[in-house]
Amino acid sequence: MMRARGVSKEPGCSWVEMGGQVHAFYVENNRHLLAVEIYKKVTEMLDSAKAEGYVVDTRWALQDGPEEEREMGLAHHSEKLAVAFGLMGGPSGKPIRVFKNLRICGDCHGAIKLVAKVYNRDIILRDANCFHHFSNVNCSCYDYW
Questions:
Q1: Which residue from 9, 43, 84, 134 has the least number of CB within 10 angstroms?
Q2: Distance CA 33, CA 31 (A)
């Protein structure tokens, strides 16, 4: 129906600056030179978060289909890719700063809170609505996003 009416949706994009260069990520995008390593880091990151109590919230999945596909789609949201990249290359102890053109979904919000705790890193994510400063297992928005 959207195509028939000529309506288009802006794709979700997250970006992080590292080494003076901006790295942009889109959902399930494999174009980055380090895509294979980034996806491995996402898996490691989410496995570590699950060990701390993270449960994938598939209500935020945009596609229909089997539960595993919905979980995989959520795992590859742009902000998770950007955070994984930040964990790979950012200096230990320094905050990871991610920017997003749309609002962060509830699943990513919950996951990134636990990732901040597991990796003992502050993660600052600016989405379309506000700044989220994830530290330990808390967010500056008090989960009111």
A1: 9
A2: 6
Distance, in Å, from the CA atom of 3 to the CA atom of 107, rounded to the nearest integer, reads: 28
User: Environment class of residue 60 by beta-carbon count within 10 Å: exposed (0-12), middle (13-18) or buried (19+)?
Assistant: middle
Q: Could you read off the pLDDT of 29-43 as tens digits, one per residue?
A: 888 999 999 999 999
Residue carrying the six token digits 């962060």? 104
Tokens of 121: 């890193």
The mean pLDDT of 110-114, rounded to a whole number, is 97
Place of tokens 């998770």: 80
Distance of CA 121 to the CA centre of its chain: 15
Confidence of residue 2 (pLDDT cuts 50, 70, 90): confident
Given the structure tokens 């919230």, which residue do they identify?
Answer: 57
DSSP E strands: which ranges in 20-144?
21-26, 96-100, 123-126, 131-135, 138-139
- How far CA 128 is from CA of 47, 52, 102, 131, 139, in Å, comes to 28, 28, 5, 9, 16
What is the per-residue pLDDT across 41-62, written as a single tens digit (0 to 9) for each? 999 999 999 999 999 999 998 7
Q: Quote the DSSP letter at residue 58.
A: G
